[in-house]
Amino acid sequence: MAAPLFAASQLGSQLGSELAVNILSAQSLLAAFGVLGVGVVMFAETGLLIGFFLPGDSLLFTAGLLCTGAGHGGLKLSLGPLLVCAAVGALAGSQCGYLIGRKAGGALLARSGSPRLHEGAKRAEELLERYGHAKAIVLARFVPVVRTVLNPMAGALQVPARTFTVWQVVGGLVWSIGLTLAGYALGSSIPNVDRYLLPIIAVIVIVSLIPLAAEFRRSRKAAATTAEKGAEG
């Protein structure tokens, strides 16, 4: 009788520790769920509005780094399965978000009371209007929150399915595989790189915003030039 009770206690303890996973921590998610967890998080962050807070960039980079065995606790992931799970999750999630947007329109977003989510939706709509469908869909992948809400916004605004699919695949592969391989390359070349993980992730987030900032600056410059020509005319 004692043995079954002891086994049940161990099982309960294990389940309790899994349920205590910090979903905002990339390392906690990877330790609990491995490469499959990466696929699930990618799908949720890019396909479901409730996933806008998930740590997509840091999760991909940290997962790539852990493929080199550079993380604490001896956790090591397999690069091949990781790349597949990351890419499939990111692409399937984005397509799912688009289909939800086409069917539900803006109803789901309207029901949300999150100011951050609504701000992301506003930025996503501005991206689509300012840069056109193809460029906006690719750029959005690198902007937290915007990459979550742009997909249903594209569906709600009736962006052609072919156009959306082609460019979300391009952006999704560059984002998911690129960040994962960046983590792997850094972990392979720098000893004890995990000690500097937080600063590195901060740099990644800043760098990921550079294309958007460059496009915004170019757009403003073009608008100013057009305004000057109009004034001269």
Describe this structure in words.
Helix content is 78%, strand content 0%. The protein has 233 residues and is mostly helical. Helix 4 crosses helix 8. Residues 1-19 have low confidence and may be disordered. Belongs to the DedA family.
The secondary structure category is: mainly alpha
Give the SSE order as H and E letters. Answer: HHHHHHHHHHH
User: How far apart, in Å, are the first and last alpha carbons?
Assistant: 93 Å
Shape: globular
Assembly category: single chain
Largest sheet: none
Radius of gyration: 21 Å
Pfam families: VTT_dom (PF09335)
Keywords: Cell membrane, Membrane, Transmembrane, Transmembrane helix
Membrane topology: Multi-pass membrane protein
Subcellular location: Cell membrane
Output the keywords.
single chain; 233 residues; mainly alpha; 78% helix; globular; disordered N terminus; transmembrane helix; VTT_dom; DedA-like
Write the layout of secondary structure elements.
Elements (H helix, E strand, L loop, with lengths): L1 H18 L6 H22 L8 H11 L12 H26 L2 H5 L3 H17 L1 H8 L5 H11 L4 H29 L7 H12 L1 H23 L1
Helix pairs in contact: 2-3, 2-4, 3-9, 3-10, 4-8, 4-9, 6-7, 6-8, 7-9
Quick structural gist:
The protein is mainly alpha-helical. The chain contains 11 helices and no strands.
